[in-house]
Write a structure and sequence with these properties.
Elements lengths: L1 H5 L4 H11 L8 H30 L2 H4 L15 H13 L6 H17 L6 H13 L3 H9 L7 H9 L6 H12 L4 H10 L3 H10 L8 H10 L3 H19 L11 H11 L11
Helix pairs in contact: 2-5, 3-6, 5-7, 6-7, 9-10, 11-12, 13-14, 14-15
Length: 281
């Protein structure tokens, strides 16, 4: 690896070596893998520091007074988190023959190395860890990683946890706690979940904070329809019918809610008879 880091056109070769050391046939030991990650992140950190120094100098106006100031050149030896995720780790986690404990150990080793060099860990690496843990039903380990902040708080991570509630009910509270620590606005959380087609998770979240009487039915029905899951659309449509009945004594949508196209779609798929009938007391 030391030899490769000195070469000019070495990036894809380095990534190939990393993939090879994580393959079933040429699997390296964890200490060796850790050493390789540290060597790569040492180069990565050097580049990040140089880039930061250059940016600060430019902002301070030094570039005009010092013509020798040049933007640092990103060499082929700089392997960043995106490179590792795309070319090595993502494919590695999908190998069925690999023991899951080894997979998780490797992911955590890479995160440890980034932390050691004080490089902020990108949320997609934490997501990869969580998805791997969930895939193998290692919820106790997931809980520990979150409890002891092994996985850093982030909005994408919190939204991923919200979407896991059906597999692992405590994930809902874990995500809410994380969002509170991040001081995230509730409507922003809903928008993120809807954009990821996590319509039920968004509805559960808004109900959990007691805001479900004021949310836009159309926004949720739009999102449900985009998933092309008719049963999900039915569930969301029925929820808002029940809300209308509870708040107004009638399940029908008012013209101001602009849900006409969704009512028409519901009738087309499920028939007029599936619409809720007003209940009188």
């Amino acid at each position: 690896m030391d030899f490769l880091l000195q070469r000019k056109e070495c990036k894809m070769v380095i990534l190939s070596v990393c993939s090879q050391m994580l393959s079933e046939s040429d699997r390296a030991t964890l200490p060796v893998i850790a050493t390789v990650f540290d060597k790569l992140n040492h180069e990565y950190k050097k580049y990040l520091d140089a880039e930061q120094s250059y940016t600060m100098a430019v902002e301070a106006g030094q570039s005009r007074s010092s013509p020798l100031l040049k933007r640092p050149v990103r060499t082929q030896a700089v392997i960043d988190q995106s490179d590792m995720y795309t070319h090595v780790l993502s494919a590695f986690t999908e190998k069925k023959e690999m023991p899951h404990k080894f997979v998780i150990a490797v992911l955590m080793e890479y995160i440890r190395s980034l932390n050691q060099f004080q490089i902020p860990v990108q949320h997609y690496l934490h997501e990869l860890v969580i998805k791997t843990l969930v895939q193998h039903n290692l919820f106790y380990m997931l809980h520990q990683f979150l409890q002891y902040h092994v996985l850093s708080d982030s909005k994408p991570l919190a939204c991923l946890l919200l979407s896991l509630e059906s597999f692992y009910p405590p994930a809902h509270q874990l995500s809410l706690d994380m969002l509170k620590r991040l001081s995230t606005a509730n409507d922003e959380i809903v928008e993120v979940l809807l954009s990821k087609h996590q319509v039920l998770a968004a509805l559960r979240f808004i109900r959990g904070i007691g805001g479900h009487d004021n949310i836009s039915a159309r926004k949720f029905l739009d999102a449900a329809k985009q998933t092309e899951d008719n049963m999900l659309f039915y569930t969301i449509f029925r929820f808002f019918e029940q809300r209308n009945q509870r708040l107004r004594g009638n399940p029908n949508f008012t013209p101001g809610e602009h849900c006409e196209e969704h009512v028409a779609f519901f009738k087309q798929v499920f028939g007029d008879q599936a619409l809720m009938k007003p209940t009188t007391f």
